């Protein structure tokens, strides 16, 4: 974790999609960490899948990780335009799906790089990071 | 243990049925199922109907009473099921439970779906409809499609086990061969490995022939109690286990991409109920929406060791005549995939195979068949074990 609680985006009731998306639009990648078992989630839940606890603390997720799997979508849904690459990024404590800005392969290091938008909903975008 | 029995089975040819409404399409499978059982609508006391996408693609909802009214069942209890591509296996699961509980005695179970461009929506529009099974908030905005879901799983499998594109192509070649023997298959033409490699890319590693087609079609079965089955003239087969499990959404948070854990949990339950193991399974119908999905399925079901799904396909072990024939119908890949009809279509194939009625694609004297019907991003799986009466 790069920081503890993030009250700006998740006051009172804990992290919901609305605040997760608002943070993403601001360039902040939020997730949750279970106060009981330390399980980390990249997308907000109401109950910890690790221990069924409900004390899920809003945290900033790591902003770089390694590509766990990827594919380039050639036949795209209506409204999404031409081919693009998506990937599952292993951020360490959790994995997150994102759009890839560059051609990447499994094992490549990528960094959080803002968001893409589809039907008024934001999704995370990652860019390749030079290695070495 | 016998949980329920099947006394009738019917399905349409899968392909394009743009001239039929959803209810008319269902009738084209339901009436043959009734005829197969030798009964009329007056003997059916419930309809469990599956459809996945019509609410989005055709602005058509509340489908149970519509389908019932089309086939003379107006008045019976009916409900509609939607669990992505596992829709009608789910309807079957609930029908079996209703038979066991005594809630109903004779249940017509099935599904119908219209997905082809001729039936309404172009490829990009239907790709969006299919993607509705992915997380609305955390996957759809990124642009994940269903070929994309299975491409992510398959590329991880290739990375971890060395599964090759040639092995994936062999799954397509095999299932097209099986489809060429099935008069109800959408794709009856044989293809070569080169045809698969040369096709346009959909989502790497999948080219066109790695992917099941958009399909229109319907299927239906009649489910009754074991005892009641003996009072009908048709040849019954028995459902001895149905396992059902779910996996996490979004996909990125599922523990192991190569395991399809929901399938492992579902088949474990189905084997426990039936007292069977993978060694007892004579053939199976698995959810090969993409070639990689069949590789994952054969491993999850315990038919081959983890990592051996690709080599097993390439060696012909999963072909008709092999040691564990997989998708003798042609599977989703060649037979077609009208989403809500797929689960019960798999059961129709099991029924015909177990009765030795499958013609040119007949598995040699099978006694135990298994169906694996998967929904969404491997987030729902239903596994059904069906056996011949000895």
From TrEMBL, chain A:
Q: Which domain of life is it from?
A: Archaea
Query: What InterPro entries does the annotation carry?
Result: ChsH2_Znr (IPR022002), NA-bd_OB-fold (IPR012340), Thioester_dehydratase-like (IPR052513)
Q: Per the record, a Pfam family? A: zf-ChsH2
| Positions in coiled-coil regions | none
Domain called ChsH2 rubredoxin-like zinc ribbon: residue spans: 23-56
This protein is called ChsH2 rubredoxin-like zinc ribbon domain-containing protein
Its source organism is: Haloglomus irregulare
Q: What is the lineage of its organism?
A: Archaea, Methanobacteriati, Methanobacteriota, Stenosarchaea group, Halobacteria
């Amino acid at each position: 974790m790069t920081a503890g609680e993030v009250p700006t985006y998740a006051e009172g009731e804990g992290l919901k999609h609305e605040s997760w998306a608002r943070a993403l639009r601001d360039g902040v990648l939020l997730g949750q960490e279970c106060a009981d078992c330390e399980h980390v989630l990249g997308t907000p839940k109401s109950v910890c899948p690790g221990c069924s606890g409900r004390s899920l603390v809003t945290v900033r997720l790591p902003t770089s990780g390694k590509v766990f799997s990827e594919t380039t979508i050639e036949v795209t849904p209506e409204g999404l335009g031409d081919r693009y690459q998506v990937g599952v990024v292993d951020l360490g404590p959790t994995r997150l799906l994102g759009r890839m800005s560059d051609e990447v392969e499994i094992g490549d290091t990528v960094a959080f790089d803002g968001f893409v938008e589809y039907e008024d909903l934001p999704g995370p975008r990652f860019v390749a990071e030079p290695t070495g | 243990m016998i949980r329920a029995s099947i006394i009738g089975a019917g399905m349409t040819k899968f392909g394009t049925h743009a001239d039929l409404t959803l209810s008319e399409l269902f009738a084209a499978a339901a009436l043959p199922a009734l005829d197969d059982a030798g009964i009329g609508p007056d003997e059916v006391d419930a309809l469990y109907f599956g459809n996945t996408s019509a609410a989005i693609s055709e602005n058509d909802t509340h489908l149970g009473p519509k389908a019932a009214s089309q086939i003379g069942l107006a008045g019976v209890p009916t409900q509609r099921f939607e669990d992505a591509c596992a829709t009608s296996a789910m309807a079957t699961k609930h029908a079996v439970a209703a038979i066991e509980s005594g809630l109903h005695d004779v249940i017509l179970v099935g599904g119908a779906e219209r997905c082809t461009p001729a039936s309404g929506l172009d490829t990009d529009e239907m790709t969006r409809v299919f993607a509705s099974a992915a997380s609305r908030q955390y996957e759809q905005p990124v642009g994940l499609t269903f070929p994309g879901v299975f491409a992510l799983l398959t590329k991880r499998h290739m990375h971890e086990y060395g599964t090759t594109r040639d092995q994936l192509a062999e799954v397509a070649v095999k299932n097209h061969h099986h489809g060429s023997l099935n008069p109800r298959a959408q794709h009856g033409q044989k293809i070569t490995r080169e045809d698969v490699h040369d096709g346009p890319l959909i989502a790497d590693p999948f080219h066109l022939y790695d992917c099941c087609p958009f399909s229109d079609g319907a299927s239906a079965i009649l489910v009754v109690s074991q005892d009641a089955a003996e009072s009908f003239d048709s040849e019954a087969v028995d459902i001895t286990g149905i396992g059902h499990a779910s996996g996490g959404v979004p996909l990125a948070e599922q523990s192991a991409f190569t395991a399809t854990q929901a399938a492992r949990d579902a088949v474990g339950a189905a084997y426990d109920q039936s007292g069977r193991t993978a060694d007892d399974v004579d053939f199976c119908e698995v959810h090969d929406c993409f070639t990689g999905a069949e590789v994952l399925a054969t491993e999850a079901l315990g038919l081959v060791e983890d990592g051996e799904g690709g080599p097993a396909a390439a060696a012909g072990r999963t072909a008709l005549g092999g040691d564990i024939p997989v998708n003798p119908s042609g599977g989703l890949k060649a037979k077609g995939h009208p989403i809500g009809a797929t689960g019960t279509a798999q059961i129709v194939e099991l029924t015909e195979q177990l009765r030795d009625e499958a013609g040119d694609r007949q598995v040699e004297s099978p006694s135990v068949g298994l169906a694996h019907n998967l929904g969404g991003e491997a987030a729902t799986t239903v596994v059904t074990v069906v056996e011949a009466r000895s």
